[in-house]
Protein backbone atom coordinates (compact mmCIF):
# COMPACT_ATOMS: atom_id res chain seq x y z
CA UNK A 1 0.00 0.00 0.00
CA UNK A 2 1.32 3.42 -0.88
CA UNK A 3 1.55 6.26 1.63
CA UNK A 4 -1.07 8.17 -0.40
CA UNK A 5 -3.43 5.22 -0.12
CA UNK A 6 -2.83 5.14 3.66
CA UNK A 7 -3.64 8.86 3.80
CA UNK A 8 -6.80 8.30 1.76
CA UNK A 9 -7.84 5.40 4.00
CA UNK A 10 -7.25 7.52 7.10
CA UNK A 11 -9.31 10.31 5.54
CA UNK A 12 -12.22 7.90 4.94
CA UNK A 13 -11.90 6.37 8.43
CA UNK A 14 -12.04 9.80 10.04
CA UNK A 15 -15.14 10.91 8.17
CA UNK A 16 -17.36 7.84 7.87
CA UNK A 17 -18.90 5.33 10.26
CA UNK A 18 -18.05 1.66 10.07
CA UNK A 19 -21.44 0.90 8.52
CA UNK A 20 -20.97 3.59 5.86
CA UNK A 21 -17.50 2.23 5.04
CA UNK A 22 -18.88 -1.29 4.65
CA UNK A 23 -21.55 0.06 2.30
CA UNK A 24 -18.83 1.78 0.26
CA UNK A 25 -16.81 -1.46 0.08
CA UNK A 26 -19.93 -3.24 -1.17
CA UNK A 27 -20.47 -0.49 -3.76
CA UNK A 28 -16.86 -0.81 -4.94
CA UNK A 29 -17.26 -4.60 -5.32
CA UNK A 30 -20.31 -4.08 -7.52
CA UNK A 31 -18.61 -1.40 -9.63
CA UNK A 32 -15.29 -3.26 -10.14
CA UNK A 33 -15.86 -5.10 -13.42
CA UNK A 34 -12.78 -6.16 -15.43
CA UNK A 35 -14.40 -5.19 -18.72
CA UNK A 36 -15.16 -1.63 -17.59
CA UNK A 37 -12.78 1.26 -18.29
CA UNK A 38 -12.64 2.33 -14.64
CA UNK A 39 -11.82 -1.13 -13.26
CA UNK A 40 -8.45 0.06 -11.90
CA UNK A 41 -10.06 2.91 -9.99
CA UNK A 42 -12.69 0.68 -8.35
CA UNK A 43 -10.03 -1.87 -7.33
CA UNK A 44 -7.96 0.92 -5.77
CA UNK A 45 -11.04 2.37 -4.10
CA UNK A 46 -12.10 -1.02 -2.68
CA UNK A 47 -8.59 -1.60 -1.27
CA UNK A 48 -8.57 1.90 0.24
CA UNK A 49 -12.02 1.45 1.82
CA UNK A 50 -11.00 -1.96 3.22
CA UNK A 51 -7.94 -0.33 4.79
CA UNK A 52 -10.18 2.42 6.21
CA UNK A 53 -12.38 -0.28 7.77
CA UNK A 54 -9.33 -1.79 9.47
CA UNK A 55 -8.22 1.63 10.73
CA UNK A 56 -11.75 2.39 12.00
CA UNK A 57 -12.00 -0.95 13.82
CA UNK A 58 -8.64 -0.40 15.51
CA UNK A 59 -9.56 3.10 16.71
CA UNK A 60 -13.08 2.34 17.96
CA UNK A 61 -13.39 2.29 21.73
CA UNK A 62 -14.40 -0.93 23.39
CA UNK A 63 -18.02 -0.92 24.54
CA UNK A 64 -17.22 -1.85 28.16
CA UNK A 65 -17.11 1.40 30.14
CA UNK A 66 -16.29 0.01 33.58
CA UNK A 67 -16.04 -3.46 35.12
CA UNK A 68 -19.44 -5.10 35.20
CA UNK A 69 -21.05 -2.48 32.93
CA UNK A 70 -21.62 -2.79 29.19
CA UNK A 71 -22.53 0.23 27.11
CA UNK A 72 -25.33 -1.26 24.98
CA UNK A 73 -25.61 1.82 22.77
CA UNK A 74 -21.91 1.64 21.87
CA UNK A 75 -22.08 -2.13 21.37
CA UNK A 76 -25.10 -1.79 19.09
CA UNK A 77 -23.35 0.98 17.12
CA UNK A 78 -20.19 -1.09 16.81
CA UNK A 79 -21.96 -4.26 15.61
CA UNK A 80 -22.59 -4.14 11.87
CA UNK A 81 -26.11 -5.57 11.55
CA UNK A 82 -25.59 -6.44 7.86
CA UNK A 83 -22.44 -8.45 8.63
CA UNK A 84 -24.10 -10.13 11.63
CA UNK A 85 -27.14 -11.20 9.59
CA UNK A 86 -24.98 -12.40 6.69
CA UNK A 87 -22.84 -14.43 9.13
CA UNK A 88 -25.96 -16.54 9.79
CA UNK A 89 -26.16 -17.46 6.11
CA UNK A 90 -28.77 -14.90 5.04
CA UNK A 91 -27.89 -13.65 1.56
CA UNK A 92 -28.58 -9.93 1.34
CA UNK A 93 -28.73 -7.77 -1.77
CA UNK A 94 -28.37 -3.99 -1.79
CA UNK A 95 -31.63 -2.15 -2.34
CA UNK A 96 -31.09 1.61 -2.31
CA UNK A 97 -29.32 2.37 0.96
CA UNK A 98 -30.78 -0.78 2.56
CA UNK A 99 -30.47 -4.53 2.01
CA UNK A 100 -33.05 -7.20 1.27
CA UNK A 101 -33.15 -10.97 1.22
CA UNK A 102 -35.13 -14.06 2.08
CA UNK A 103 -36.36 -14.08 5.67
CA UNK A 104 -34.59 -16.65 7.86
CA UNK A 105 -37.66 -16.93 10.11
CA UNK A 106 -40.17 -18.29 7.60
CA UNK A 107 -40.16 -19.96 4.18
CA UNK A 108 -40.55 -17.67 1.22
CA UNK A 109 -39.56 -17.41 -2.44
CA UNK A 110 -39.74 -13.63 -2.84
CA UNK A 111 -37.48 -11.50 -0.59
CA UNK A 112 -39.47 -9.67 2.07
CA UNK A 113 -36.73 -9.32 4.70
CA UNK A 114 -35.26 -5.80 4.86
CA UNK A 115 -32.18 -4.63 6.76
CA UNK A 116 -31.81 -0.93 7.50
CA UNK A 117 -28.11 -0.36 8.35
CA UNK A 118 -28.54 3.36 9.18
CA UNK A 119 -31.21 2.51 11.75
CA UNK A 120 -29.47 -0.73 12.87
CA UNK A 121 -32.76 -2.66 12.45
CA UNK A 122 -34.39 -5.36 10.36
CA UNK A 123 -38.02 -5.99 9.37
CA UNK A 124 -39.80 -8.76 7.49
CA UNK A 125 -42.88 -7.76 5.55
CA UNK A 126 -43.95 -11.42 5.39
CA UNK A 127 -43.95 -12.47 9.06
CA UNK A 128 -43.63 -8.98 10.63
CA UNK A 129 -40.49 -10.01 12.51
CA UNK A 130 -38.58 -6.91 13.56
CA UNK A 131 -35.71 -5.96 15.83
CA UNK A 132 -32.13 -4.91 16.24
CA UNK A 133 -28.90 -6.89 16.20
CA UNK A 134 -29.55 -8.29 19.69
CA UNK A 135 -33.06 -9.41 18.78
CA UNK A 136 -31.83 -11.07 15.60
CA UNK A 137 -29.14 -13.03 17.45
CA UNK A 138 -31.64 -14.01 20.17
CA UNK A 139 -34.12 -15.31 17.62
CA UNK A 140 -31.57 -17.13 15.44
CA UNK A 141 -29.84 -18.90 18.33
CA UNK A 142 -32.82 -19.12 20.70
CA UNK A 143 -30.81 -17.51 23.51
CA UNK A 144 -31.39 -14.91 26.21
CA UNK A 145 -30.67 -11.19 25.93
CA UNK A 146 -27.44 -11.34 28.03
CA UNK A 147 -26.19 -14.20 25.85
CA UNK A 148 -27.03 -12.19 22.72
CA UNK A 149 -25.07 -9.22 24.09
CA UNK A 150 -22.04 -11.48 24.56
CA UNK A 151 -22.42 -12.86 21.01
CA UNK A 152 -22.81 -9.35 19.52
CA UNK A 153 -19.49 -8.41 21.12
CA UNK A 154 -17.80 -11.15 19.05
CA UNK A 155 -18.67 -9.54 15.71
Question: If you had to describe this structure to a student in words, what would you say it looks like?
Answer:
This protein is α+β, with helices and mostly antiparallel strands and 155 residues long. The chain folds into 2 domains: 3-59; 64-152, Zinc finger, CHC2-typedomain (DNA Primase, Chain A), CATH 3.90.580. The chain is 51% helix and 15% strand. The chain is built from 7 helices and 7 strands, in the order αααββααβββββαα. It has helices at residues 3-15, 18-31, 39-59, 72-78, 81-87, 133-141, 145-152, and strands at 64-66, 69-70, 92-95, 98-101, 113-116, 121-124, 130-131. A 5-stranded antiparallel sheet has the order 3-4-5-6-7. Strands 1-2 form a two-stranded antiparallel ribbon. A hairpin with a 2-residue loop joins strand 3 (92-95) and strand 4 (98-101). Helix 1 packs across helix 3 and helix 2 (18-31) runs antiparallel to helix 3 (39-59). The protein is flat and about 45 Å long. It starts with a helix and ends with a helix.
Amino acid sequence: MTSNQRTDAQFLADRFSLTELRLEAHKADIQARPDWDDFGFWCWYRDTVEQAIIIKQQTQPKPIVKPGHIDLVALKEQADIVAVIESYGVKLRKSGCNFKGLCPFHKEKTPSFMVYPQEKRYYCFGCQSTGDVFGFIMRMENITFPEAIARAGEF
